Amino acid sequence: MMTAVETNTSTSTLPNPLSAGPCCRFCAEPLRHTFVDLGTSPLCQKHVTPAQFDHGEPFYPLHVYVCEKCYLVQLPAYVSREAIFDGEYAYFSSYSETMLAHARAYVEQMTARFGLGGRSRVVELASNDGYLLQYFLEKKIPCLGIEPTANTAAAAQEKGVPTIVRFFGRQTAREVLDSNGPADLILGNNVLAHVPDINDFVGGMKILLSPAGVVTMEFPQLLHLIDKNYWDTVYHEHYSYLSFTTVEKIFAAHGMELFDVDEIDIHGGSIRVYAHHTDDGTHTVSERVHAMKARERAAGQGDLKSYAAYGKQVEEHKRQILSWLIEQKRAGKKVVAYGAPGKGNTLLNYCGIRSDFVEFTVDRSPHKQGNFLPGTRIPIRSPDEIMDAKPDFVLILVWNLKTEVMQQMAAVREWGGKFVVFMPQLQEC
Ligand SMILES: [Zn+2]
User: Fold this and answer.
1) What is the distance between the alpha carbons of residues 360 and 404, in angstroms, rounded to a whole number?
2) Would you give the DSSP letter of residue 31?
3) DSSP per residue over 76-87, as a string?
4) Strand runs (DSSP E) across 8-155, as ranges?
């Protein structure tokens, strides 16, 4: 049994990042410049159950800064990684066909390009449920997953993918180096943005990488967040919003060089960077690297003023969304939503959209039905209920799956209903 004192300690473990003012997680410069301030929001993956409905929820700031010295765009660690990536973490990569196809193609490409075989060692950071490493196993290439969330790691082990349940950093790197030897390929897809201590994480890769080894990291590129207005992808598990140029600086500080880059269309505009030890002459820096840096420079990413404009753009977008909703409600229209993604919660909480504007949302996952969205408490129901409610508008919160949703819910048009997306721009369709 826990004593009252122990309970107190366990619920107040969050350090206050503002106690001495937030500092850059890479270069330690004090953070003074706002990129965008989305107010406060609860953790976007923690749905409210009926039993929790009469209780409060903690809200944390979504105040994103840009560092004036290294231009790393970042959310201070208002919420610890342990509080987000826990044993109940809800995202299993294998549920997505797109992710599986992407993983299989990646394994084919890397095996061919870097001549990987039975004597190579592959390590994946944040290996989730083994959705990617299973394809290395098929090729009999030894691999190891490092994954902090116990439930997804257990699913990987069931597939036969060796996995250790741990956060990655220098300490874990030394342990894996001792037990498994150096890695010829270290990969991390959609994880670099999710680490609060980016120096410890990149420093760990430096330790674990074999002398001629290669690191590949995939992450959503800041350029697209800005150009395509994806501000709803700001949430607490995304600690950093990365550009190629900033990631190059971070790797260089840890003795590694980015020698190539690919653009990939997953998650609405990501890049994959390739790194090696700076003193490894095996790979020459590709023309694509120079072109990518030139493109980021041309977009103003070396100029503080261009970052400051983003917040104003987001505020105006919020006014457009609210004007549209107010107009519909005054005209007596019924609006419901489709999907319960993390990004939808940033959008709804920042704009203050509750069931006064959007009566309910729907999700195909039975685990989510019957619960409520965090903060806004919009009920989550089964997609069938849209057919009964016959709304005038279905707001697609999973806007990246817009085409799929409109096909699946085509019956909405039978009663004259329409679809609407708010991101990246408000559009009735
Ligand atoms: Zn900095």
Assistant:
1) 20
2) P
3) --SS-HHHHSST
4) 33-41, 60-66, 73-74, 122-125, 143-147
pTM: 0.89
**68: CA distance to ligand 1 center in Å?**
7
Tell which residue, 399, 397, 398, 390, has the closest CA to residue 418: 390
Contacts of residue 303, Cβ cutoff 8 Å, sequence gap at least 6: none
* 241 Cα to the center of ligand 1, angstroms: 12
pLDDT of residue 4: 36
Strand, coil or helix: what is 428? strand
Give the Cα-Cα-Cα angle 245, 251, 253 (nearest 5 degrees).
Answer: 105
Do the Cβ atoms of 135 and 104 come closer than 8 Å?
Answer: yes
Count CB-CB contacts under 10 A for residue 421: 21
d(CA 187, CA 141): 14
Q: How far, in Å, from the CA of 59 to the mean position of ligand 1?
A: 26
- The pLDDT, as a whole number, for residue 44 is 86
Closest to 355 in 3D by CA, of 367, 373, 368: 373
Residue % of the chain over a pLDDT of 70: 93
Q: What are the structural domains, with CATH classification, of the chain?
A: 4-78 (no CATH), 93-299 (3.40.50.150), 321-428 (3.40.50.720)
- Ligand 1 centre distance from Cα of residue 76 (Å): 12
Q: How far is ligand 1, taken at its centre, from the CA of residue 414, in Å?
A: 54
CA of 71 to the centre of ligand 1 (A): 6
CB of 191 closer than 8 Å to CB of 247: no
Q: Are 342 and 235 in contact (CB under 8 A)?
A: yes
